[in-house]
């Protein structure tokens, strides 16, 4: 059974009467990329700041590596690397010099600089000034800074924000490799499901401070049943006839739709339509995309 690296119990943060994070129960295990997903303003960054000890919870508990964060803050946070919002660096210094500043603060061996430069594929650009780096290179430097202390857990808050498609692909591939090649587990937040589904093995979805889903990506797909579309000759009358037989039928753009039918039920609907002399020219099962499931869970009015 995988070790639990992060566990929160009813984690809550209030500002006045508003609960920005409300009773959150997260569980992140070793060896996984955990996608922490939700619309902008859902409470992701506030949660991450609590996990990093930057702000205190109003109530609830945080355990990391099996120990309470409140009592073992310094010991725990030595094992955590983080990139929250934009990476901090000195543009007039080289990548290597930026890493040297942080290395001295952490007190880690000098050889760690070359190791993390290799990990984030910045060896060739190590002696260029950071102000000459692309956005993707700057993000990788931020991750290198987070990796200097040899963390067991890396927490990344919206690491692909502001990147072009090539930079997004670059960061995504790097994150996916971390648990497998470097034994670093990752919690990565995003408001984009399309990003998370290409990186994460587990996902937690937060909306208005509440966790509304947590589990494998494969489980997320099961949250919404497929719909069956029927193309028929007289949809208005066909809908009326099927409703009289007890079927829950909707009509959209001239087609009839029924949710959650298995093969046997679908064949019964077709048989009924044919027996009532309606022509049936199309039967199609339509499975929702992950994006559609996400919109359904978070509320279609939320910003993505």
Automatic annotation (TrEMBL):
<dbReference type="GO" id="GO:0005524">
    <property type="term" value="F:ATP binding"/>
</dbReference>
<dbReference type="InterPro" id="IPR003593">
    <property type="entry name" value="AAA+_ATPase"/>
</dbReference>
<keyword id="KW-0067">ATP-binding</keyword>
<feature type="domain" description="ABC transporter">
    <location>
        <begin position="6"/>
        <end position="233"/>
    </location>
</feature>
<dbReference type="InterPro" id="IPR017871">
    <property type="entry name" value="ABC_transporter-like_CS"/>
</dbReference>
<dbReference type="InterPro" id="IPR003439">
    <property type="entry name" value="ABC_transporter-like_ATP-bd"/>
</dbReference>
<keyword id="KW-0547">Nucleotide-binding</keyword>
<protein>
    <submittedName>
        <fullName>ABC transporter ATP-binding protein</fullName>
    </submittedName>
</protein>
<dbReference type="InterPro" id="IPR027417">
    <property type="entry name" value="P-loop_NTPase"/>
</dbReference>
<dbReference type="InterPro" id="IPR025302">
    <property type="entry name" value="DrrA1/2-like_C"/>
</dbReference>
<keyword id="KW-0813">Transport</keyword>
<dbReference type="Pfam" id="PF00005">
    <property type="entry name" value="ABC_tran"/>
</dbReference>
<comment type="similarity">
    <text>Belongs to the ABC transporter superfamily.</text>
</comment>
<dbReference type="Pfam" id="PF13732">
    <property type="entry name" value="DrrA1-3_C"/>
</dbReference>
């Amino acid at each position: 059974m995988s070790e639990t690296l992060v566990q929160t119990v009813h984690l809550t943060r209030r500002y006045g009467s508003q609960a920005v994070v409300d009773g959150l129960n997260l569980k992140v295990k070793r060896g996984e990329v955990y996608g922490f997903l939700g619309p902008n303003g859902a409470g992701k960054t506030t949660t991450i700041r609590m996990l990093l000890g930057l702000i205190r919870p109003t109530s609830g508990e945080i355990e990391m590596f099996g120990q309470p964060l409140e009592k073992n803050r310094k010991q725990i946070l030595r094992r955590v690397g983080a990139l929250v919002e934009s990476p901090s660096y000195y543009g007039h210094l080289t990548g290597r010099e930026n890493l040297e500043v942080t290395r001295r603060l952490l007190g880690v061996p000098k050889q760690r600089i070359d190791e993390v430069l290799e990990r984030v594929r910045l060896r060739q650009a190590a002696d260029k000034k950071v102000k000459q780096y692309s956005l993707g290179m700057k993000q990788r430097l931020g991750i290198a800074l987070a990796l200097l202390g040899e963390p067991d857990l890396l927490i990344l808050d919206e690491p692909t924000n502001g990147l072009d498609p090539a930079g997004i692909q670059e960061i995504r591939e790097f994150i996916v490799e971390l648990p497998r090649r470097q034994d670093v587990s990752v919690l990565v937040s995003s408001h984009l499901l399309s990003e998370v589904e290409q990186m994460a093995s587990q996902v937690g979805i937060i909306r208005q401070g509440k966790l509304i889903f947590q589990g494998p990506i494969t489980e997320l797909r099961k949250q919404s049943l497929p719909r069956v579309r029927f193309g028929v000759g007289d949809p208005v009358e066909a809908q009326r006839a099927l409703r009289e037989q007890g079927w829950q039928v909707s009509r959209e753009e001239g087609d009839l739709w029924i949710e959650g039918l298995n093969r046997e039920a679908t064949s019964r609907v077709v048989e009924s339509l044919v027996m009532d002399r309606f022509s049936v020219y199309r039967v199609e099962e339509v499975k929702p995309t992950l994006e559609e499931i996400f919109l359904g869970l978070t509320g279609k009015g939320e910003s993505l």
